[in-house]
Structures are given as C-alpha cells and as structure tokens.
Amino acid sequence: MHIVTIEEMRELEAQAERQHGLTSPILMQHAGSSAADIFMAQLLPHHSINDLEVLFLIGPGNNGGDGMVMAEHLVKAGALVSYYAWKQHKLTVRGQDIDERHTSEELESVLQSADYVVDALLGTGTSRPLSDDMRALLERVKREGEQRPELRIVAIDLPSGVNADTGEVDPGTLKADMTITLACPKLGFFFFPAREYIGELHVGSIGLPTDLESHLQTEMLNQGFCRSYIPHRPLNSNKGTFGKVMLFCGSAAYPGSAYLAGSASGRVGAGLITLAVTEKTLPIYASSLHEATFAILPEGPTSELNRGKTHERTQALSDHLPGYRALLMGPGLGQSSETRETILQVLEYLRSEPTEKRPHLVIDADGLNNLSALEHWWTFLPEGTIITPHPGEMSRLCKGQKVSGGSIDRLALAREKAQEWQVTLVLKGACTIIAHPDGRVRLNWKANAALATAGTGDVLAGVVTGFLAQGLAPFDAASLAVYIHSSAGERVSAELGNAGLLASDLLPHLPRVMRDIKHNAYRPGSDITERYEGK
Ligand SMILES: NC(=O)C1=CN([C@@H]2O[C@H](COP(=O)(O)OP(=O)(O)OC[C@H]3O[C@@H](n4cnc5c(N)ncnc54)[C@H](OP(=O)(O)O)[C@@H]3O)[C@@H](O)[C@H]2O)[C@@H](O)CC1
Ligand SMILES: [K+]
C-alpha cells in the first residue's frame, strides 16, 4: 500500500478527475461510505449501531464533507447522529436544527451522552495553526474523554491539526482511538509526534483506480505484501532448498547475539545455521544452539607480532563460505583492531567472488561500528549488502551527524544514504524505515516500546539473513523481516504488555506469525493494514 504526501494526494485526486472523470463529489461519496463501513465493522460486538450516539464535528472543507456523507450512512443504519458545523456554529441533533441561542448548552448535553465523537474538522487542507475556538472545542471533547474513558474518538483522514507531511501536531489536536484515513496513509503518520495521535489506523477507499499510484516511491508494509513474499515450502524439499546461513557474530564477551541471530534465522525457515566460532567460544554455543553446525576459526592474534593470524581466520571462514546463501557479520564481534582487520578481509573476499557464488551479506551492530571508523567505508562493501543500523550506529556511519529517533528527518536521510552508499538500509526505530538504493522506501507502521530492549536487533538481523538464505532479494528480505519481527513483538506484548519482553521471547512467535499471515489468520493488534475496498 502506498504512502502519500499532501501534494501526491492532491495529484492523485486531480488525475482521477482528468483521466477517469472522478470528480470531488464522487470521491467524497466513496470516502464517506467507506468510512461508515469501516466504522460499523469495527464496533465491538456488544455495540450495536442501533441507538449508538455519534457526534460529528464538521469542518469547512472536504474533510467536513466526508464527515457529512459518513453521518448520512450511519443515520440510515440506525445510529443517533448529531453534527456540529464548526464554522457556522450550527448544531443539528438527530435531524433537528437547534436554535442558535441554545447551541452551547445542547452541544454540551449531546457531548455528555455521546458514545463516539467523529473528528471531521480538518484534513489535508490544514493551512495554519488551529484557531482558538477550534482548539477550545477539541479541548472540551478531550476533557469529556478523560472523565468518560468509554468515549471513543474517530478521526476522518487524520486527527485535525496533524501535519500530514511532517508529523508535527498542533497543541489543540485530539488523540484519536481510530483514524480512518482515505485512499492512502499519509507520510506524517509514521513519524513523531503524529504517530501517537493516530490510534488504530484503517484505510478507506475513495474509489481511485490503483494504476494511478504506480509511480509512488513510498510504501507501507502490510500483510498483503508479506503474504506474497513468505517463502514457499515445496513438499519435495531438503535443508539445502531453504538455504544455508553463516553467522560471523558473537565473542566470549557477547555470546548472546550469535545465539539470538542464529535461532532467528532458523525460526523463519533457513535450512541450516552455521556459527563461525573459536575453540574458546564453541562450548558456549554448542550447549545453547543444538541445531547449529560450527565453523571453527583460529583464535585472533594477541599482539602485533602474530598479526598473520588474522589472515588465517579470514581464510578459514572463506573456505567455509561456498554453498552458503547468506552471511551475517557483526553482532557481538567487539571492536578490536584485529576484528576490524578480519571484517575488511572478509569483505575483500566477498567482492572478489562472482555474485552468484558468494553469500549475500547482512552487516549489523559491531560490523557497522568497525566500519564507521573508516573513511568511505561503503566502498568496501560487496554489491547487494544490507545494513541494519539503529539511530546511534547510523549516526556513526554518517560521521557523527545527528540521527533522530522518530522525526521525519530520518526518512530523507535513509533515502539519501541508501542511494549514496548503494546498500539496502534498514534504519531501525519506532516505525522502521527500509530504503532501497534506487530511492524506493518502505515504512513499518508497527511501533512497540516493548522491542526497545537488548538483543531484539540481533533477532531482526537473523530474520533478515534467514530470508536472504531462502532466496529473497535484499530489499524484500529486509522488508519481510521487519514486518515479521515487529508482528512477533506485537504478539508478545499482547500477553506481557509493553515492558519486560526478552529478545528470546520473540523466537517462538516468528514461525507462528508467518503461518498466520500465510493463512490470512493474523489479526494485528493495532491496525487493519489492508485498504478497505467495500463489501
Ligand atoms: N479533494 C477531494 O477530491 C477529496 C478530498 N477528501 C477529503 O478532503 C480533505 C481535504 O479537503 P480540503 O482540501 O477541502 O481541506 P480540509 O482539510 O477539509 O480543510 C480546508 C478548509 O479548512 C480551512 N482551514 C484550513 N486550516 C484551518 C485552520 N487551522 N483552522 C480553521 N480552518 C482551517 C480552509 O480555509 P482557508 O484556508 O481556505 O481559509 C478550508 O476551508 C481530505 O483530508 C479528505 O478528508 C477525500 O475525501 C477524497 C476526495
Ligand atoms: K479530521
């Protein structure tokens, strides 16, 4: 599903009219009807539409128009609908216009008995900060919601006051429990602070022919996408069918990362996991990851005098690599000069091999930290490399440039750097960004504070590597991995809440999420990520 800026949305609407005769009123009929359908589909089973009290806040533009169409549909379905036209200060309660002199007290009374308030004040046409009286109206609804937590807020297209391009939010904006956005999710939703105001995200249809969207470069990860990329498992298969993964990760001080990454690769279906270890670290892994095989490397050099040992290590590792489809390098390796030397030698080996004969490469964590110490580090990478930095690692890769945790700046940065460095870039964070070297970008809607804990990055790196081993192209392997990983996180949080998750908790959920997505049985906790195209 594509994600749009305000300008792109306007262009889509203009094209719909030019090429297909879909005028604004026609689109609005679709929008309001689709929003009503989604709203009714989401009512809890004990909430019948009959006698449900819904107050619509109607703005002066097309967003208000969408609200009016939606309201008509709810009236027909049996809801008790009132609407307040903000600009005209006009209140209509269940079909009756209220005398201007009684508007305030009647509005107060309608609000106090409402089950739902629908925010159809402003959409993508917001051109200035919210006016004081609009803020006062929204503030009143907010206070009512604080007193009556059962009151639900539904935003049409976006919560009024959210900047759909940047994710900035007006101080008067009301947090929605559910946003029914129209045609396409808006770019600003994926960044903070807006992300916190959207609630459950649903995407309604305005009847645009999908071919109009084909030029758009930003996509949202969703189930439909993932279903089409989950590797097929033919009956007539063996472990070679699903690819071999080599992990050059972990050290005596950081053994957990190789365990987590290796297990994750296996849990998403890779055929064989091999850990590159030394005699010293072998016992740690042999006792924790029984299914893995091992490539035993010589210990690294202990001083400048026996530096030649680095070459021996690299040689031992590269001797093992033929036949492996994916290599993960970095997590837990540490940052000694010897490790850096080995990493560079492995990169040199990979660059010297024809693409079809060498494993695809994922670099994470200390792999990136070691590289970032070098000038023009990206020139050492083989073609098709995936890198998976968190904001701190990204900042080091960009030579200290500040990388924000969740603001819109990080999108432009990810896009620019994936092109400059010619890598598939997974910039982790709440709403992870996956950028292709050709300028395309995919964004993950799922943001989960429970995943902000040690080791979850190792699991993600292992999942990416596991999908690469199964033959997915780098951009698709990375995208699928981000979605599956965050969905597993969503499942764990459904049970544990948003704190206390351990990275290893994710592992058994990875195959379950894949199974359910494949069979269309996965129910995300916080959104319906397919566009609703009507019944
Ligand atoms: N076009 C289409 O075909 C389709 C559009 N669709 C729907 O329309 C929405 C976009 O519609 P839109 O462009 O009419 O803008 P919208 O957000 O309703 O508001 C504009 C009005 O608000 C006013 N205003 C602005 N800022 C203000 C402020 N701070 N405080 C107070 N007032 C403010 C502004 O006034 P002005 O700046 O002109 O003085 C103008 O009167 C979009 O989000 C979607 O819901 C879809 O259903 C599909 C078809
Ligand atoms: K709105």
Automatic annotation (TrEMBL):
- Look up the EC number in the record and give it: 4.2.1.136, 5.1.99.6
Q: Which residues form the YjeF C-terminal domain?
A: 222-517
For this protein, the record's Pfam families field holds:
Carb_kinase, YjeF_N
**What keywords tag this UniProt record?**
ATP-binding, Isomerase, Kinase, Lyase, Metal-binding, Multifunctional enzyme, NAD, NADP, Nucleotide-binding, Potassium, Transferase
Q: Please list the residue ranges annotated as the YjeF N-terminal domain.
A: 9-214
Q: Which reaction does it catalyse?
A: (6S)-NADPHX + ADP = AMP + phosphate + NADPH + H(+); (6R)-NADHX = (6S)-NADHX; (6S)-NADHX + ADP = AMP + phosphate + NADH + H(+); (6R)-NADPHX = (6S)-NADPHX
Cofactor(s) listed in the protein's UniProt record = Mg(2+); K(+)
Per its UniProt record, what InterPro entries does this chain match? Carbohydrate_kinase_pred_CS, CARKD, Nnr, Ribokinase-like, YjeF_N_dom, YjeF_N_dom_sf
Q: Where does K(+) bind?
A: 63, 119, 160
**Entry note: cofactor:** Binds 1 potassium ion per subunit.
**Entry binding sites for (6S)-NADPHX:** 62-66, 123-129, 157, 332, 390, 458
Question: What are the protein's GO molecular function terms?
Answer: ADP-dependent NAD(P)H-hydrate dehydratase activity; ATP binding; kinase activity; metal ion binding; NAD(P)HX epimerase activity
Q: Name one GO biological process term.
A: metabolite repair
From what superkingdom does this record's organism come? Bacteria
Q: Which PROSITE patterns match?
A: YJEF_C_2 (PS01050), YJEF_C_3 (PS51383), YJEF_N (PS51385)
Cite the record's note on assembly: Homotetramer.
Q: Which protein family is named in the record?
A: Belongs to the NnrE/AIBP family. Belongs to the NnrD/CARKD family.
Write down the HAMAP family for this protein, in alphabetical order.
NADHX_dehydratase, NADHX_epimerase
Task: Sum up the protein's function in the record's words.
Answer: Bifunctional enzyme that catalyzes the epimerization of the S- and R-forms of NAD(P)HX and the dehydration of the S-form of NAD(P)HX at the expense of ADP, which is converted to AMP. This allows the repair of both epimers of NAD(P)HX, a damaged form of NAD(P)H that is a result of enzymatic or heat-dependent hydration. Catalyzes the dehydration of the S-form of NAD(P)HX at the expense of ADP, which is converted to AMP. Together with NAD(P)HX epimerase, which catalyzes the epimerization of the S- and R-forms, the enzyme allows the repair of both epimers of NAD(P)HX, a damaged form of NAD(P)H that is a result of enzymatic or heat-dependent hydration.
PANTHER family with a match to the protein in the record: ATP-DEPENDENT (S)-NAD(P)H-HYDRATE DEHYDRATASE, ATP-DEPENDENT (S)-NAD(P)H-HYDRATE DEHYDRATASE FAMILY MEMBER
Name this polypeptide is given: Bifunctional NAD(P)H-hydrate repair enzyme
- UniProt source species: Ktedonobacter racemifer DSM 44963
Q: What is the lineage of its organism?
A: Bacteria, Bacillati, Chloroflexota, Ktedonobacteria, Ktedonobacterales
